[in-house]
Please model this.
Amino acid sequence: MKTVLTIIRWVVGLLFIFSGLIKSNDPLGLSYKMLEFFEAWGFHFLDNYTLSFSVVMNICEVLAGVAIIIGWRIKFFSWFLLSLILFFTFLTAYVLFSGQIKECGCFGDCIPLTGSSTFIKDIALLLLILIIFFNTQKIKQALSSGISISVLIVTIIAAIAVQFYVLKHLPFFDCLPYKKGNNILNEMKAPAGSVPDSFAIRFRYKKNNRVVEFDQAHFPNDFDSSYEYVDRFDQLIRKGNATPAIPDFSLRTIDGVDSTSFILQQNRKYILLFAKDFSNVQDWKNDFKELLVVATSKKIAVYLITADADNGIQLFKNVPVFKCDATVIKTAARVNPTYFLMQEAAVLNKFSYADSRLLLQEIANAK
Model:
C-alpha cells in the first residue's frame, strides 16, 4: 500500500505542477477564461480581479503539487487538494452540461481539452486524491521540515517570477494561432478536411389566420395562392467543424474600410504594433518613436493596430492607424503593446514593448 500511495502522490503532484506551470506560461489566458465564467454567472463585480485570481491559482496548483510529493503538512494539503479538485470538477461539469462555455482552460491554450475529456480527468483525479485523503496517516514526510519549507518557498518565488516575466515579455511558449511562424491568412481559412455547418431552408406561410412552417422538401399538398408568405429562415441541421483558428481578424481604417488583405499581402517586411489601449503609453512611446526612425530608414512600414483608434491618431500623427477588435488584440498580443515583424501574412517574430530593443536590432541589421 505504501508503494501505491507513493505512486498516486507523484501522479497527482506532477499533474498539479504541470497544470499550474502550463497556465503560468500565460496567466492572462486564464484570466480571460475566468471572465467567461463570471459573465455567465453575472459576477461582474469580480471582472477587475481576474488576473490576480489567475496568478494566485497557478501558484496554489504548483505549491500543492510539490507539497503532496514531499509529504509536507500532508493533512492540510490533502484537504487543500480535495477542495481544489472539487472546485475544478464543478467548473468542468458546468462547462460540459451548461453549454455556455466551450472549454474550461484547465491546461491553458497549449493543451485544449473537450469538456467531456476534462470532466473525466477531474473525476479520475478526485478518486486518487480521495485515496490520499483517507490514508494521510500512512504518508511520511520525505524531507526535513527546514528543507521542505525551503523547497516550498523557492517554489512560490519561482511561480511568481515566471508569471511576472511573461506578463511583461510574452509567454515562453506561444500556443495561439498568431504565434511566430504562422501565416495569419492561412489561419483564417477553415481547416483542411473540415465539414461546414449544414442548414435547411424553412418557410413560414399563413393560411386561414394560421402560420404554417415547412422546409423546401415538404411543401403542403394543397399549396396554392391561398398561402400568404410570411418569411424564411435557415435552420441548423448538423453542426460542422469548419471554424478557422482565427475567425474574426479584421483591420479597418478610421473610415471603416477593410484593409486586412491590403496589409497582409504586402510582399515586403513590415511591422504591426498591436496596442489594445494606451494606458501605459509613457512606458513605450519614446522607444516606439526611435524604432520608427530606424524602420523608415530601412523602408520598413509600421502600422499601429488598436481598439482605441482616436487616441492612437492623436498620439502618433505620422503613423497609419487601423482599428481592430479589442478581443482579437488580447488574443494576438498578450502584452500591451506587442510588435509583430511580418513578411506578407507570415509572423516572422513577436516582441513585447519591453523587448523593443531586440526588434530594433533585428531591423537595423535587415538588408
